[in-house]
Amino acid sequence: MQILILNGSPRKKGNTEQIVTRIAEDVTKDGDEVELFRLADLDIHPCIGCGHCEKAGICIFKDDMQVLYEKIAEADRIILASPIYFYGLTAQAKICVDRCQALWSRKYILKKSISSKPGRKGYLISVAATRGERVFEGAILTARYGLDAMDVRYSGELLFPGVDGKGTIKNEPDYPAAVHTFIQLLLES
Ligand SMILES: Cc1cc2nc3c(=O)[nH]c(=O)nc-3n(C[C@H](O)[C@H](O)[C@H](O)COP(=O)(O)O)c2cc1C
Fold first, then answer.
1. In the prediction, which pLDDT does 167 show?
2. For 20-56, how does the pLDDT look when each residue is reduced to its tens digit (9 = 90+)?
3. How far apart are CA 137 and CA 88, in angstroms?
4. Fold of 2-187
5. Cα–Cα distance between 87 and 149 in angstroms, integer?
6. CB atoms < 10 A from the CB of 94, how many?
């Protein structure tokens, strides 16, 4: 199985990075292929709503998103990972999602396929400092519709509320079990 992980946290050695690295290591051991991108390291121009993609399904910006469009098409599983920033995704993650407008246009306006692979699935991983009941709501909605544009079926999430300090996710008692359960969900057919 080909698994694409888009890490939207700009914090190096932060909580999201620790979670996705652990998942990548565990899943690779099982023989699955993982590609992990740190979005903060990529050159991705924000969408400017020019509408070019509505005519051709292609974005005018020839930046690192062009590589991600290919990776998105090749993946069996796509994980969008982002900590909560002001009740939503980070800017880095949101820019990537917005640039999937080109895929949305291809799928819904031009009625063209995004991928030749069947049964593709998508997931959200997120971390937030607070424990508010609605803290992940905005991110889940954006991830759901972003992943739909990537043409994968939204199939679940791994959420950690109440985690703030850099890398402190490892101190959460339920962390190993939650990751284990998530990997099972990720790999099921
Ligand atoms: C700009 C910014 C905005 C944030 N907004 C929220 C927020 O709205 N709600 C919340 O619970 N935590 C918020 N946080 C805290 C982060 O979600 C938290 O520190 C998280 O553990 C960071 O994950 P990371 O280490 O993977 O980057 C914010 C942090 C930053 C830097």
1. 96
2. 999 999 999 989 999 999 999 999 999 999 999 999 9
3. 8
4. Rossmann fold (3.40.50)
5. 21
6. 20
Ligand 1 is surrounded, with C-beta below 6 A, by: 9, 11, 14-16, 83-87, 127-130, 135, 163-164, 166
Contact in structure between 113 and 41 (CB atoms under 8 Å)? no
Which of 85, 90, 125, 169 is the pocket-test mutation for ligand 1 (most atoms within 8 Å of CB)? 85
Tell whether pTM > 0.85: yes
Domain boundaries, given as residue ranges, for the chain: 2-187
Query: Residue 119: CB partners within 8 Å, gap ≥ 6?
Result: 76, 153, 189
Token pair, residue 109, equals: 């306006």
Which residue's CA is the closest to the ligand 1 atom numbered 4?
85
Which residues are within 8 A (CB) of 118 and not within 5 positions of it... i.e. 6 or more apart?
A: none
Name the one residue in this structure whose structure tokens are 């199939």: 155
pLDDT at position 47: 98
